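Blinded run. Sample ID left blank on purpose so nobody reads anything into the name before looking at the predicted structure. Input follows.
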Amino acid sequence: ASFLYLPKATDAQLIEALRFFASADFSILDSDQTATVREALAHSLTHPSGKVRVQAARALQVHGPGAQRTPFLTAIGDTERRVRWAVVRRFSDNPTELDKAQRSILLSYLEAGTRAEFAAADTDGDKALSRREFKGVKDEFDQLAKGDDQISLEEWISPYPSEIRSDVVALLLRMHGKLTPNEIPEGYNPWLPSSDQLDIVEDWKRWNDRVSEKPAPEEN
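Blinded prediction complete.
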């Protein structure tokens, strides 16, 4: 597992190592060894190469994320769809692995600021928010601005791309069907602005509140 941390390891070497882990038999490992491997797999989810991240996500999908559930869940925001779908498949099949707080993280991908909030913050009326006009923290600004030095209205009302929100909704719907099979889920259109559907997100938050809390799964 320590090999996955080596700066000099090539992408091809990391991919082969991750494929090995995906096909390995974790039952021969003790709990500490399993946790160490999962931590290394989660570390690989941040690798610059999408091909490496895909293999890391697939290994965690196969063996389960254990204590790395939150890092694995947030990989649903990855630009590589095969990474996102490893997350969707894992938690679609195992929805009870996520607790209320982790489901809240999932719902946060559907949230956004409103047009009224944007207009109030845009004090110079140039239809963009500068760092001076933005009242949040630096990391939030950088995430919304997506590499620019200002936040556009479009970025404000839909912080996450439709493709990512589509996969988030796919997972939510599958979880809803398994956790509350007798309820009808609220519809959310990932191709419309997030800010226009905040009432739907609130409905999903109420659903999250209703879902019975279950003991956290074993992490070995």
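Unblinding after everyone has recorded impressions. Residues 161 and 173 are 18 Å apart (CA to CA).
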